[in-house]
Amino acid sequence: MNGIYASPAIKTIARLGFTAKGLVYSLIGILAFMAAFELGRQSNNIDKETTFNIIEDLPAGKWLLAIVSLGILCYVVWRVVQALLPNDSNDSTSKNVFKKFRYLFSALIYLSLAFFAAKMVFQGNQNNGDKKQDAIQSVMQMNNGPLLIGIGAIIIAIIGIYQIYYSFSEKYEKHVSLNYGNDKTSDLLLTSGKIGYVARGIVWLVIGWLFGRAALHSNSSEAGDTAKAFKFLEEASYGSYLLGAVGFGLLCYGIFNFIRARYESFQ
Asked: For the whole model, what pTM was predicted?
């Protein structure tokens, strides 16, 4: 085991990171489940950034949001540590390279999320949804813009397929090492992880489909993020039940991260 992995500071950073990640996914899952049965806000207004608005509206919301932002940044640090340091895995070189690329990709995604949360703390809500749409429109107007959007759609869909494969193959079990807890804790972690990864995979696949449709029609407004993916699910046949199931799955993924934060050895 590499020495820095055993460092109490690194383990604390990892625990804070998984706690923040669990909070964000739990809130998104609850909001999606409520929207499915018309118990809260509409499905086309639910994404990770919406959770920041909810946190910000709580008593001492700015301070809480700042803590969440720091927690997400801790998760970024943990992913970078995983990506850059050698490990004791017996996997092939290609698998290790893919694994490290996945860690760095995850770090970049959550770094942008931490940055957005921190920006909200100091500047308030900047209507980031419009900026996303403007960015997609800018790409679409480039030479071969639809092709670039189409390639992005394929990559996003592959990520979704991999998430579902990761669940049913139970490969995620190899990356979880519980230090405490009991058999019930272990069972809850593995079950919540399986359901959670499937739900994440479905969301990624829908987002990939939306980007693919936008590329085919050369229409940036058809591309979308998590909020549009939820709306797409809700408008499908038996959409309320489908969106409710995905919301429950994302809540499970949040619970999965909470359990990892509490019990994982992070070695």
From this structure: 0.88
